[in-house]
Amino acid sequence: MKVDKGLYYSKDHEWVRIDGNQAFVGITDFAQESMGDIVFVELPEIDDSFEAEDSFAVVESVKAAADIYLPIAGTVVDVNQRLEDQPELLNTEAFEQHIAVLEDFDAESLQELMDADAYEAYCNSLE
């Protein structure tokens, strides 16, 4: 299992990377491994606003469909269109392929998420 440093992690296995006033959100390596081969991603709509822990996307694999929960509140300003034609990128590049980009996010809520070391320990406790 791969865990990237410098990201924020949720117990639902999403990651958040902050770049200036934008928050990039995706699923972790642990999540994609658990799901198996990903075959479809339903992306959120641009300009949709979400609260923390809202379902904002759906990822379907050969095993099942899973809601993806937003770790922080914010407004979607961009989505990763590549995932519409190549959903399997989440399997091969979980940390390079974001699902959505948020602005107007709640920076204080980042403190409620885990850093890489805490997330790795959390995942190890699940195995």
The whole-number mean of residue pLDDT values reads 95
Rg (CA only): 13 Å
Q: Secondary-structure element order, as H and E?
A: EEEHEEEEEHHEH
The proportion of residues in beta strands is: 25-35%
Classify the secondary structure makeup into a structural class. Answer: alpha+beta
Tally of contiguous helical segments:
4
**Overall morphology:** globular
Q: Strands across the major sheet, in which order?
A: 1-2-3-9-8-5
For the biggest sheet, the summary is: 6 strands, antiparallel
Based on DSSP secondary structure assignment, what is the total number of beta strands? 9
Q: Ranges with pLDDT <50 over ≥5 residues?
A: none
Q: Kindly, what is the distance between the CA atoms of the first and last residues, rounded to a whole number of angstroms? A: 11 Å
Q: Roughly how much helix do the residues carry, as a percent range?
A: 10-25%
